[in-house]
Design a protein that fits this description.
- The structure is a single chain.
- This protein has a 10-stranded mixed beta sheet with strand order 3-2-4-5-1-10-11-15-16-17. Strands 8, 9, 12, 13, 14, 26, 27, 30, 31 and 32 form a 10-stranded mixed beta sheet that branches. A 7-stranded mixed beta sheet has the order 21-20-22-23-19-28-29.
- It is α/β, with parallel strands linked by helices and 686 residues long.
- The chain has 16 helices and 35 strands.
- 26% of the residues lie in helices and 25% in strands.
Length: 686
């Protein structure tokens, strides 16, 4: 009998070996999955999402779970009416995702797209719901909504544990908008009350979750912070305000709407969809360590002032970025930032004999006793200066006259003697000229203005008029509102080469300028100007902000910061969508009162960080006993912190059910069987 057993083992040794390695290969799907971060929208990125989901099919099945948890308005409880409406809306997305799967799947593979009815913490521990998170799931798609509510519903629940386990074993985790935001462990939750894009550069504008109790998904990106709808909603200011804070990751990933990117370990790569992904690095050149906090007015938080933020822009194509080394790649070519980079801003000086120049980003809503107007009158040196006001770019000549008269009234109230001109000639004995424009696409650069300025007359150019005074300008009007498609064309499509009409300006200074970049979402125009004229600084002016330029240099005026985008040392190319691709641009933010001059970018520099301003502590009411939103208290701390919220005692430590034995146990048993088989086979040959 023993001889027969040995003979069977010998003949079947190969089969045993194959079986052992099959078991190991199945269990070895402990290679983590990919993260697919989508900045917003759905249909434009479904095909890109499906490319990875289908490649991750299990036994010929592409099983996708659709997770609508960001739809909920409260993490603890929602009404049945809200649940029904959420399920109805989510079912529409499930059908879209299923359709995209069926359109892309090969003939020998099938699709199964399942809607998971998870909205609250109790849902996240429901055994029936947890059963849906099976090991044959190829991908999970998290819908958009509110990332803060989503994480309050998921954190430290069996559902989150199950998500973590599936990701660790190769399941792809994707999501759009809020579903993308949760994919960084440090999570940008929302603006704080009374903050929005236009004042996001003020310290404390953003609520950030970065504790064990308040965070994004635990397996999300560890060394960077994700922001979504990035250029669509002008979120450059808020991401800079976050990555420059101490004790937070100093790298930010801004994913635009209708655009996705793959996060694979330390890499982000393979942008898909329509537009771009922006990476901001405040670590390499120690921008976060050297950040300044500038007080603008009593009772307001300070404004962030920062230098040498490294900027990378990725578009679809063979482009990637290593989050660990902070190095961008075009194909296999790495573009490491120089160890030391010295810059000058010599272009921010007026020619000898020219009048002082003030370039404003739109003061039209704050003309009464405006500080920038007061400064301009001071420059003229006369208490009752004679000022010419000219307006252009309005809907009609009459509209231009009305605009000019508003500025004239404000100047008159400050003591000036004002003449409203028609833009054809300059009267004699003028002490200063105010040139105002609303719509750059409806303006002609006035040649007479340059002559007067070079002869020594100070000039204040506001809004669209300011951009005409640069070497080149974007000939576009204000961003459309009320029409989502037209807004997309104006805001996001301007990151695609050729979609911004660029014309030659008056070249008062060899720079390019763009007003209202935050309030009117005009970063695409700024980037178009910088990309096409990388030898020149691109300066972004915000509303109620101005740049005063004289023979010695320039300084910031007003109530907000300005951006200086410098691509003189950057690498540039285009993606397959003709979108901008930039490696190692530099971005600076200057506050009012500061001289606009660069600082050396030095990888080895050492800074003594400025003390972090104090802000009210975010103190949310513990969950699940209350569903109230977080409120501000009068308690102060150096960094905004949050109290923990209670996990349900029934679910906090409950491990998710598993339908597979542990990997180590299978490996040990398999190895034991293999060794036993080899021993019997050896004995049989003797």
């Amino acid at each position: 009998m023993m001889q027969v057993f040995r003979s069977l083992l010998t003949r079947n040794l190969l089969a045993l070996l194959l079986a052992f390695f099959f078991i190991i290969s199945v269990q070895a799907q402990s290679t983590p999955g990919l993260l697919l971060i989508i900045g917003g929208g759905y249909t434009d990125t479904y095909n890109g999402f499906m490319q990875y989901a289908i490649a991750n099919a299990r036994n010929g099945l592409v099983k996708i779970l659709v997770l609508p948890v960001p739809y909920a308005t409260n993490a603890e409880t929602i009404t049945q009416a809200e649940r029904n409406q959420n399920l109805k809306d989510a079912e529409e997305r499930r059908l879209q995702i299923e359709g995209a799967c069926l359109r892309n799947v090969p003939a020998d593979t099938s699709c199964e797209v399942v809607l998971v009815p998870l909205f609250t913490r109790s849902d996240a521990s429901d055994p029936a719901i947890l059963e849906l998170f099976s090991h044959d799931v190829a991908a999970i798609y998290i819908l958009g909504g509110d990332q803060a509510v989503a994480m309050q519903a998921l954190i430290d629940t069996p559902a989150e544990q199950r998500l973590t386990e599936l990701y660790a074993n190769g399941t792809i985790i994707g999501g759009t908008s809020a579903g993308g935001a949760v994919q960084s462990r440090t999570m940008l939750a929302a603006y704080r009350p009374n903050f929005a894009p236009e004042n996001a550069l003020f310290f404390g504008a953003v609520e950030v979750w970065n504790t064990d109790e308040r965070r994004g998904l635990p397996f999300g990106i560890q060394d960077a912070i994700v922001d979504q709808h990035f250029q669509q909603r002008a979120r450059m200011g808020r991401l800079i305000s976050v990555i420059t804070q101490p004790d937070l990751p100093h790298v930010g990933i801004g994913v635009d709407a209708y655009t996705g990117v793959v996060a694979d370990g330390n890499w982000i790569r393979d942008v898909f969809g329509l537009y771009t992904v922006t990476v901001l690095d405040a670590e390499t050149y120690h921008a976060a360590d050297s950040v300044r906090y500038v007080t603008i007015a009593d009772g307001q938080p300070p404004l962030i002032s920062v230098r040498n933020v490294l900027l990378t822009v990725l578009s679809p194509g063979d482009f990637s970025y290593n989050l660990q080394t902070r190095v961008p790649y075009f194909g296999q070519t790495a573009y490491e930032p120089p160890p030391i980079l010295e810059r000058t801003f010599d272009s921010l000086r007026i020619p000898s004999g020219a009048g002082t120049l003030i370039l404003a980003g739109d003061i039209s809503d704050t003309l009464n006793n405006n500080g920038i107007l007061r400064r301009f009158l001071d420059i003229t040196g006369k208490a009752n200066a004679s000022i010419l006001v000219v307006a252009d770019g309005g809907a009609s000549p009459a509209a231009n006259q009305r605009t000019a008269q508003r500025y004239a009234n404000a100047l008159s109230a400050l003591g000036a003697q004002v003449t409203v001109g028609d833009g054809e000639a300059v009267p004699d004995n003028i002490d200063g000229i105010v040139f105002v424009g609303r719509d750059a696409s409806n303006m002609t650069p006035p040649a007479w203005l340059r002559s007067a300025w070079l002869a020594g007359t100070p000039v204040l150019a506001d809004n669209a008029a300011a951009t005409l005074l640069g070497s080149f300008y974007a000939a576009h009007g204000p961003t459309p509102t009320g029409d989502a498609e037209q807004e997309e064309i104006a805001v996001q499509r301007s990151f695609v080469q050729g979609k911004t009409e660029i014309k030659e300006g008056l070249n008062f200074l060899p720079v390019t300028l763009q007003p209202q970049v935050l309030a009117d979402k005009r970063f695409g125009r700024l980037f178009s100007l910088a990309y096409n004229h990388p030898d020149q600084l691109a300066i972004a002016l915000n509303a109620n902000t101005a740049l005063e330029v004289h023979a010695e240099g320039a300084r910031v005026l007003g109530e907000n910061g300005i951006f200086v985008l410098d691509l003189r040392f950057a690498e540039r190319t285009l993606g397959t969508n003709n979108g901008f691709v930039i490696a190692n641009g530099l971005l600076d933010v200057f506050a009012p009162g500061e001289i606009v001059q660069p600082e050396p970018a030095d990888i080895d520099a050492v800074y003594q960080p400025q003390p972090t301003p104090q802000l009210p502590t975010l103190t949310p009411t513990p969950l699940p006993t209350s569903t109230a939103a977080p409120t501000l208290t009068a308690v102060s701390s150096t960094i905004p912190t949050a109290t923990t919220f209670a996990s349900s005692p029934d679910t906090a430590t409950e491990a998710p059910p598993s339908d597979q034995p542990p990997y180590w146990l299978v490996a040990v048993l398999g190895l034991a069987v293999l060794l036993l088989a080899v021993w019997f086979a050896t004995k049989a040959r003797r």
